[in-house]
Amino acid sequence: MDFSLNAAQQALQARTRAFIAEHIMPMERDPRQTAHGPTEALRTELVAKARAAGLLTPHASKEAGGLGLSHADKAIVFEEAGYSPLGPVALNIHAPDEGNIHLMEIVATPAQKKRWLQPLIDGHTRSCFCMTEPSPGAGADPSMLQTVALQDGDDYLINTCFTGGHAVVRFDNLRVPATDVLGKVGEGFRYAQLRLAPARLTHCMRWLGAARRAHDVAADYARQRRAFGRSLVEHEGVGFMLADNEMELHIARLTVWHCAWVLDQGEKGRHESSQAKVICSEALWRIVDRSVQVLGGSGVTDETIVARIFRDMRAFRIYDGPSEVHRWSMANRIARG
């Protein structure tokens, strides 16, 4: 069992880490970085930096302009990118684009790839993934899906309503040509599973980097800030919190690496990705929460990046399956023996 990184992985890790530190982190206070993410102008600028550095959309195939990373390679690069909230945007590895690129590379036709996939890989367009519907529609339970696609000649008419974090989107007899259907009709649920397991893991990779950033900020502060005659880190209560952070970062990373290895073996990784999603989302949340506590008042203000990470990470325990749904799913597998 070898946990070491090969020479190519070490070089890619160092290259990504240097790029994030030198070109992306200095832009975190750019006023175009809003509560909902960067404006399109800032996104375009960030993407241009990654393109110039040869790091844009590294998970895409080499034929399409990416680096053709394995899942294990992605675990390394995505963690480094996640160290800055703008990192995944710059490298074009953020959700949902990363997962949609993965899916389209598998099932899209050559014509669909040329029209829809390549501009996404090149960083010129964005994408979305619509699944969550208002009650009584689908959420964590996709079997409750109310969306209807009726064939009308050579087209399909789609009727549905999607509730997301930015707006409510209604499809009223939206006409979609049959040539734009991904894969075979009736196979949508199976295709979604091809996307969801790897996408759960890439969320873990990115948030692992963010949690490491929060811990580093808190540890640096604890070494410098003094109270009651000594630095904060020398107080057992603070030092133990930081020690717990390091242990949980290690556990989360090993969980990610193992699941990545499983996927690289060609397995579906449903059980492993569920485990990773729960372990990482809960452990990383605890790490960031402790970091806020160590920082005190500055941990809940824009004085450091930690408040932003704290605010953004909470939803990680909900999307791509709440922890409770993954536990329920794993329990069902255990019950079946």
TrEMBL record:
The keyword Transmembrane does not apply. GO terms for cellular component: cytoplasm. The keyword Lipid metabolism does not apply. InterPro entries: Acyl-CoA_dehydrogenase, Acyl-CoA_DH_CS, Acyl-CoA_Oxase/DH_mid-dom_sf, AcylCo_DH-like_C, AcylCo_DH/oxidase_C, AcylCoA_DH/ox_N, AcylCoA_DH/ox_N_sf, AcylCoA_DH/oxidase_NM_dom_sf. It comes from the Bacteria. Its cofactor is FAD. Gene3D superfamilies: Acyl-CoA dehydrogenase/oxidase, N-terminal domain (1.10.540.10), Butyryl-CoA Dehydrogenase, subunit A, domain 2 (2.40.110.10), Butyryl-CoA Dehydrogenase, subunit A, domain 3 (1.20.140.10). Residues 186-334 form the Acyl-CoA dehydrogenase/oxidase C-terminal domain. GO terms for molecular function: acyl-CoA dehydrogenase activity; flavin adenine dinucleotide binding. Residues 7-123 form the Acyl-CoA dehydrogenase/oxidase N-terminal domain. Belongs to the acyl-CoA dehydrogenase family. PANTHER family: MEDIUM-CHAIN SPECIFIC ACYL-COA DEHYDROGENASE, MITOCHONDRIAL-RELATED. This is Putative acyl-CoA dehydrogenase. It comes from Cupriavidus basilensis OR16. The lineage of its organism: Bacteria, Pseudomonadati, Pseudomonadota, Betaproteobacteria, Burkholderiales.
